[in-house]
Design brief:
heterodimer, A: 446 residues, alpha+beta, 3-stranded antiparallel beta sheet, 10 strands, B: 236 residues, 5-stranded mixed beta sheet, two-stranded antiparallel ribbon, 4 helices, 11 strands, NADH-quinone oxidoreductase subunit D (chain A), quinone (chain A), NADH_UbQ_OxRdtase_49kDa_CS (chain A), NADH_Q_OxRdtase_suD (chain A)
């Protein structure tokens, strides 16, 4: 491997090339000081601690001012959308959950709402399943926002918000593990409902979480809301107003920090969100600080929704009710249970299909291996993810596998706002601007 | 289930055969009894008026309102620009001729009665059996002013995969069109910099196309190979 050779070739076309490997800042400054070049092109990423994952930025600098910011993505492209075309509709949830890995429940819900729309069963999803979906989504919103604020703090050089945020997120992940068996990528939401009912004791566990969390959010606010160092790094930085948001297709907390209370949970409700009591927080500052405030307030609103979910789940109307659609041609046949060898089909179900009913065995086998057929057509389903509108464009040709699934991931769209928010600003503010967009590369590249 | 005309009833023209038999296997003795199975392709939908939709303040369906307003804005017959209108599963789709796509999108965004100011991007779909219109660019629009959604679909034949770029109207389409180009080979004329976005710059082919060759997996057993996903036996 000869870097000298590469450098020589690049220098012939693009000017002097400096290789920076860390802890060599003084040497670089000395070398650049002797140069008569006015502009410096910096290649930031794809492996860089403050670009939020494998994002590559090519910055053209004049002094410390960014003249041009170009974004390069694709380093995490795994072809999830293509892979799904060779799996059944139910298996699709295990793929989409890995897209935006900090908001798996939202990916699953958007996909399942799309499949359910194609099947025409949207009205037949059991109410208990809808409440569980809302509960899980709001828990996930808190964990995602906590992670956003945590990494944001660390990228600005503050480690306490990071430790706080990760600690709080861990509480949500523990709940996820208790409910689904997995901390991330749960494939818990399935077409027709959810994979398994909440285990005993969930309501109490989440009740404890609801007691602790408001204090923790308050701690975070106390740490950051009026912190002078934080304010100077966030106020009036990365300005993006309503016109810019509309043109660039920006939604979610960024749009709401520009003053527009557009939240799909209110404007185009799904999963019964119209029956919950909550507010849509907005700010008018259009800057990084506004986005932070919106995220903080959204977590407080999420806590309100979770509380209402718990009341409903424990109430007499929904207690012990089914969590998967009654239609046996669609609903997953197995009743899952925890056994000595882990999570799997319940002993009762095994006894039924192996011992008493040949038809039940055939049915189980057909539905699990072949899957259900979805009538031909296309549908678009959108949910309000922590980052903005997460849409699933689902196309069926009438078969047992998706013909095409496209995810409109908000992170992908929002990264287009980097030139608009960074150019003309200082290079240090690029970090703040990118972090405030909260891009998740798994969702960007899919 | 909803909105689909019943397929293959007496009196209706039969759709072309998509597949016979099952499991995608040919040449082997079929003992399953599925050998005589004939699966026909889903019919192409086209919805006649009235289009319906959620009832708005005018007392009529929203979808009729959108169609009427677009017709008025275009100043002519809607059918001159919109090849077909499809209402399916409570969603409205306009199949727009590619020559008129820019004009239609501009009216959809700017006309006060339409105001689809937010675009959720472009998604490509490859229908190899839709002869003469194999590649579809699907645009999802949302009107925040009127709180309604619309899908605009624009098709191009495989032999001439050109569709006008809508970046000048919806700047957010920049990356979305690059993605559709990268993965489907749709060429958006007038795009400021139509380059690959997900795949490496020197990649050959467009992976999301249905005819993109998929590789099998060689295994260390007597030269065997796991066949590519599209060649495996399956329920299709």
């Amino acid at each position: 491997m000869s870097t000298a050779y590469d450098n020589a070739q690049e220098e012939a076309t693009e000017g002097k090339v400096y290789t920076v490997t860390g802890q060599d800042w003084d040497e670089l400054v000395a070398a650049v000081a002797g140069s008569d070049e006015e502009r410096l092109v910096i290649n930031m990423g794809p492996q860089h601690p403050s670009t939020h994952g494998v994002l590559r930025l090519v910055l053209t600098l004049d002094g410390e001012t960014v003249i041009e910011a170009r974004t390069v993505i694709g380093y995490l492209h795994t072809g999830i959308e293509k892979n799904m075309e060779f799996r059944t509709w139910t298996q699709g949830t295990t793929f989409v959950t890995r897209m935006d890995y900090l908001a798996p429940i939202f990916n699953e819900t958007a996909y399942c709402l799309g499949v359910e729309k194609l099947l025409g069963i949207t009205d037949r999803i059991p109410e208990r399943a809808d409440v569980i979906r809302v509960l899980m989504m709001e828990l996930n919103r808190i964990s995602s926002h906590m992670m956003a604020i945590a990494t944001f703090g660390m990228e600005l050089g503050a480690t306490t918000p990071f430790l706080f945020g990760i600690r709080e997120r861990e509480m949500v992940l523990d709940l996820f593990e208790y409910i689904t068996g997995l901390r991330m990528n749960m494939a818990y939401i399935r077409p027709g409902g959810v994979s398994v009912d909440l285990p005993a004791g969930t309501v109490d566990k989440i009740g404890e979480f609801l007691k602790i969390m408001p204090k923790r959010i308050y701690e975070m606010r106390k740490l950051l809301d009026a912190n002078p160092a934080y304010l100077r790094r966030t106020k009036d930085v990365a300005y993006l107003d309503l016109t810019g948001c509309m043109a660039l297709g920006v939604t979610g907390p960024i749009l709401r920090s520009a003053g527009l209370p557009w939240d799909l949970r209110k404007s185009q409700p799904y999963c019964g969100y119209e029956t919950y009591d909550f507010d849509v927080p907005t700010e008018k500052t259009c800057d990084v600080y506004g986005r932070y405030l919106v995220r903080m307030s959204e977590m407080e609103e999420s806590l309100k929704i979770i509380e209402q979910c718990l009341d409903r789940l424990a109430g007499p109307d929904l207690k012990g009710k089914p969590v998967m659609i009654e239609d046996k041609k669609i609903g997953w046949p197995a009743q899952l249970a925890l056994g000595p060898d882990g999570f799997g089909n319940s002993p009762d179900h095994i006894a039924h299909i192996m011992g008493t009913s040949m038809e039940a065995l055939i049915h189980h086998f057909k539905l699990v291996t072949e899957g259900f057929r979805v009538p031909a057509g296309q549908a678009y389903a959108a949910v309000e993810s922590p980052r903005g509108e997460l849409g699933a464009h689902v196309v069926s040709d009438g078969g047992t596998r998706p013909y095409r699934v496209h995810f409109r991931d908000p992170s992908f769209t929002h990264l287009q706002a980097i030139p608009a928010t960074c150019e003309g600003g200082m290079v240090a503010d690029v970090i703040s601007a990118v972090a405030s967009l909260d891009p998740i590369m798994g969702g960007v590249d899919r | 289930m909803t909105g689909n005309p019943p397929a293959n009833l007496p009196g209706l023209p039969e759709e072309p055969v998509a597949r016979t038999g099952m499991f995608g296997a040919t040449g082997t003795g079929d003992t399953s009894g599925y050998g005589g199975l004939v699966v026909r392709r889903a019919p192409k939908l086209s919805t006649p008026r009235p289009y319906g939709g959620p009832v708005g303040p005018s007392g009529r369906g929203d979808f009729d309102d959108i169609a009427d307003q677009l017709e008025r804005a275009l100043g002519g017959d809607l059918a001159e620009a919109v090849e077909s209108v499809v209402v399916d599963r409570g969603e409205l789709t306009f199949h727009v001729k590619r020559e008129r796509l820019l004009e239609v999108c501009r009216h959809l965004r700017d006309d006060p009665a339409l105001r689809f100011e937010l675009s959720l991007g472009v998604s490509g779909v490859h229908y190899p059996d839709d002869t003469g219109a194999e590649l579809h660019a699907v645009i999802h629009l949302c009107s925040i002013t009127h709180n309604r959604r619309l899908r605009v679909e624009c098709a191009a034949p495989d032999a001439d995969p050109h569709v006008p770029s809508t970046v000048e109207i919806y700047p957010t389409h920049d990356w979305h069109e690059r993605e559709a180009y990268d993965l489907f080979g749709l060429i958006f004329d007038g795009h400021p910099a139509l380059t690959r976005i997900q795949m490496p710059d020197d990649w050959e082919g467009h992976p999301q196309r249905k005819d993109y060759p998929l590789g099998g997996v060689p295994v260390e057993y007597r030269g065997a190979e796991i066949p590519a996903p599209d060649e495996r036996r399956s329920y299709a």
